[in-house]
Amino acid sequence: MTVAVMLGGIALDIYAGAPEQSEQAIGGSSVLRMSDGAGFKQTHWTKMSGTLAGRGLYPAGLDGLDYSGPLELRVTQVSSMQGDELVYALPSTPRPDRAPWALARVDGRWRRTPCAFDDATMTVMVTAVADADQYRVDWMPVYSVFTERPSRAQNGSFDWSTNWEEA
User: Fold this and answer.
1) 16: helix, coil or strand?
2) Helix (H) or strand (E) holding 106
3) Are residues 145 and 122 part of one domain?
4) Among 46, 63, 25, 76, CA closest to 147
5) Whole domain around residue 115: which residue ranges?
6) Statement to judge: residues 15 and 66 lie in one domain
């Protein structure tokens, strides 16, 4: 099964350029200092932002989208959580067309292990593996984002890029 980056229901075709993806947390947080100098981090909210870009044989096909409101962005950049627990509460929503997957580390090697995903609680339950010392859950997020029509250039190929912020 091929999973493509999608923006506003448009699959970014490989001929429009394999999408380069970046994402980073943005947030309403600050470090406050107490009278003794000890730091205390206060967080009001956290969202994600990033960039999509590509260079391909064809344009990206994103000119017909309505950029006045939020659009659904389905990325293929993998998010991951790791620890010794068997239950993981995901901090972002996984793509509906690609369920989260789990791995167990046994003797220093990662191997797939079954897991179940509860979309009502955004929780992944990993099946225990004998002698595993760590577990990892991976998923591809979907975001509701604000973005603008991509910037474009054409010089032998179709170059495009756009920045996005989670709604």
Assistant:
1) helix
2) strand 101-106
3) no
4) 63
5) 79-139
6) yes
Look at residue 1 in the predicted model and tell me its pLDDT: 59
**71 and 89 co-located in one domain:** no
- Residue 112 three-state SS: strand
Give the tens place of pLDDT for each residue, 8-20.
999 998 899 889 9
Predicted local confidence at residue 29, as pLDDT: 84
Do residues 134 and 159 both lie within one domain? no
71, burial (CB in 10 Å: exposed 0-12, middle 13-18, buried 19+): buried
Spatial separation of the C-alpha atoms in residues 125 and 159, rounded to whole Å: 41
72, 43: one domain: yes
pTM of the model as a whole: 0.90
Residue 167 token pair: 């709604």
Return the structure tokens found at 165: 């912020």
- Tell how strand 20-33 and strand 39-56 pair up: antiparallel
pLDDT value, residue 2: 75
